[in-house]
């Protein structure tokens, strides 16, 4: 009965808009007191969950996104994408998607994508006659590509929680990311024709070459990171440090837009963000210990086994749970919370953890586009100057093609596993 009360406290506090970390910490404290468990277990579990070498990559990739936004890399990625697809009907909508696909190989974060690249995209689109609602919607939807295409911050968290290969997970996101981009571009093409959005002239070859030259070093970022990882020069965690050095080189030396005076603000922003995430992880660590103590994972596994639930049915249930989870909390705590529950089940059912990881991250990113939390949608709606409610109304149609890709990769695992199996034997 105590564990039931814990769940009810968390649900109630979340519905009252209490931060998820505070809700989990409060409920966990109630459990510890009710069960007369020494509070010394709290610091032990809080430390254990964050004492992970791969987790070091998390703040560094967060820093990379901020450095590239401040150092001019983001603008060059946008200009490069515009050179190649800006001449299509609804060109800036396509540019929005392609730029997100390129930038995702550098920052690995939906918030970094939406907060940096998104600001440029929304401003450019509204200035050229696009509805603010459309600009916000496609910016929010395309930012979900970031955590799928490597490097990916949520994938690092998943790998840590599920003991999965970071390298294989990175490779597994390539094809799904491209499919997401294609699906969103099809929607943009439909909208552009229906609303008669502007169509720019094909740029002169000089413009193409100039923008390619300016953006070439930015394009080298994923090549350096992934090439170094899979050639064995450095580990995925070390790749994050390399990415920081490369971002500093681009900002200070190549583009000369990053200044020393920018760094304190950038570092402070990273410290604030990572502090929030660390507190989340620490509180979730206590809660997962409680779940394990109450044998919740074992009980669920026993139910799955006794009910003879097949892998396809479980994947359908998992998709629903993950989408709902993504609606009420952010990606990191969701992954850590669900890890002790899902891990023994996927091991028993023989579901590949790399395939499941991409499914998990995409589910949670789609959930993060919806109320009541919707952090990505909140960021872009603020930048677009429209209400959260209007932003969701116009973003919802773009969620549908993302759901179609989700179903495709859920039931065709080879889409995710093809490149990892090809490169990493």
Salient structural properties:
425 residues, mainly alpha, 2 domains, 21 helices, 79% helix
List the helices and strands and how they pair.
Layout: H1 2-15, H2 20-34, H3 41-50, H4 57-70, H5 73-85, H6 91-107, H7 110-127, H8 132-143, H9 153-162, H10 166-172, H11 174-195, H12 205-230, H13 236-254, H14 263-293, H15 296-306, H16 311-328, H17 331-349, H18 353-367, H19 375-384, H20 388-411, H21 414-423
Helix pairs in contact: 1-2, 2-14, 3-14, 4-7, 4-9, 4-13, 4-14, 5-6, 5-12, 6-7, 6-8, 6-11, 7-8, 7-19, 8-19, 8-20, 9-17, 9-18, 10-21, 11-20, 12-13, 14-17, 15-17, 16-17, 16-18, 17-18, 18-20, 19-20
The whole-angstrom Rg is: 22 Å
SSE order, one letter for each helix or strand:
HHHHHHHHHHHHHHHHHHHHH
Strand tally, please? Answer: 0
How many separate helices?
21
The mean pLDDT is 83
How much of the residues is beta strand, in percent?
under 5%
Helicity range of the residues? over 70%
Multimer state: single chain
Number of domains: 2
> How is the main sheet built?
none
Which shape, going by the Cα principal axes?
A: globular
Distance between the ends: 48 Å
Structural class based on helices, strands and sheet pairing: mainly alpha
Which residues sit in consecutive blocks of at least 5 with pLDDT less than 50? none
């Amino acid at each position: 009965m105590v564990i039931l009360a814990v769940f009810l406290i968390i649900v109630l506090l979340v519905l009252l808009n209490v931060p998820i970390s505070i809700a989990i910490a409060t409920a966990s404290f109630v459990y510890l007191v009710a069960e007369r468990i020494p509070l010394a277990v709290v610091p032990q579990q809080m430390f254990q969950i964050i004492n992970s070498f791969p987790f070091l990559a998390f703040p560094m990739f967060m820093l990379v996104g901020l450095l590239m936004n401040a150092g001019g890399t983001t603008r060059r990625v946008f200009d490069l994408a515009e050179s190649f697809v800006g001449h299509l009907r609804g060109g800036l909508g396509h540019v929005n998607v392609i730029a997100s696909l390129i930038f995702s190989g550098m920052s690995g974060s939906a918030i970094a994508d939406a907060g940096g690249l998104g600001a440029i995209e929304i401003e450019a689109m509204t200035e050229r006659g696009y509805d603010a609602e459309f600009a916000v919607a496609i910016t929010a939807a395309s930012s979900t590509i970031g955590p799928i295409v490597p490097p990916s911050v949520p994938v690092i968290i998943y790998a840590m929680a599920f003991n999965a290969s970071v390298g294989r997970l990175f490779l597994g996101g390539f094809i799904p990311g491209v499919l997401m981009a294609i699906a969103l571009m099809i929607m943009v093409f439909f909208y552009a024709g229906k609303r008669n959005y502007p169509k720019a002239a094909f740029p002169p070859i000089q413009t193409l070459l100039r923008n390619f030259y300016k953006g070439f070093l930015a394009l080298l970022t994923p090549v350096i990171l992934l090439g170094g990882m899979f050639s064995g020069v450095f580990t995925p965690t070390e790749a994050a440090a390399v990415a920081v050095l490369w971002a500093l080189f681009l900002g200070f030396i190549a583009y000369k837009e990053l200044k020393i005076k920018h760094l304190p603000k950038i570092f402070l922003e990273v410290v604030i963000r990572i502090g929030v995430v660390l507190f989340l992880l620490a509180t979730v660590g206590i809660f997962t210990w409680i779940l394990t103590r109450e044998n919740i994972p074992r009980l669920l596994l026993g139910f799955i086994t006794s009910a003879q639930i097949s892998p396809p049915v479980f994947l359908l249930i998992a998709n629903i749970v993950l989408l709902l989870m993504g609606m009420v909390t952010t990606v990191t705590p969701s992954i850590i919370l669900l890890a002790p529950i899902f891990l023994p089940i996927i091991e028993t059912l023989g579901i590949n953890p790399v395939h499941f990881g991409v499914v998990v991250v995409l589910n949670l990113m789609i959930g993060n586009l919806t109320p009541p939390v919707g952090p990505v949608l909140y960021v872009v709606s603020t930048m677009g100057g429209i209400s959260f409610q209007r932003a969701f109304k116009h973003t919802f149609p773009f969620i549908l093609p993302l759901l179609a890709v989700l179903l495709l990769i859920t039931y065709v695992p080879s889409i995710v596993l093809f490149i990892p199996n090809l490169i990493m034997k």
